[in-house]
Amino acid sequence: KLFFTDYGNAAKVERCDMDGMNRTWIVDSKIEQPTALALDLINKYVYWLDIYLETVEVVDYQGRRRQIITKGRQIRHLCGLAVFENYLYTINSDNFSILRINRYNGTDVQALAGLDNAKEIRVYQKRTQAAVRSHACEADLYGMPGGCSHVCLLSTSHKARTCRCRTGFILGSDGRSCK
Q: Radius of gyration of the chain from Cα atoms?
């Protein structure tokens, strides 16, 4: 799944399949300016910052069990969001400090370090990566991902895929080759 935020005409947190199909709103009320999003892949939770409402919130992948993690004026100065173990990590855009927020007790906030002009944060650690199983976009005998001549996108599950073409090409009737 692909998760994303939008705060155009109607602010929301959404998800869809990797090929863009099955687009679903998972949060569409009491939300104004969701600006950063992080996923807990193991427990299937979506965290986001709302800089207008000054909140960090969480829901499960279906949009249920919504909770406010922390709320207050300091949220409007945050950018970027990552989750690792018991903590959320973000950046204070006023002083570019990395903040660690306990995701179970939002009052436990600690400044860890300062950076120059940072706007995004990621955690790179082996435990943050889910084990990869075989999937529909694996290279075939000819080295083509999922048998697609240009681009292979996972669809409704790891067993289904959609082929797409680069700009200027159209998908052939076989659903795999681009012309």
A: 19
Hey, do 2-128 and 131-178 end up sharing a CATH topology, with the first three levels equal? Answer: no
Top CATH class, 131-178: mainly beta
Fold of 2-128: Neuraminidase (2.120.10)
Instruction: Report yes or no on whether pTM surpasses 0.85.
Output: no
Per-residue CA distances from 106 to 61, 144, 177 (Å): 21, 46, 50
Residue boundaries of the structural domains of the chain: 2-128, 131-178
At 14-67, the pLDDT tens digits run 999 989 999 999 999 999 999 999 999 889 999 999 989 999 999 999 999 999
pLDDT digits (tens, 9 = 90+) for 12-28: 999 999 899 999 999 99
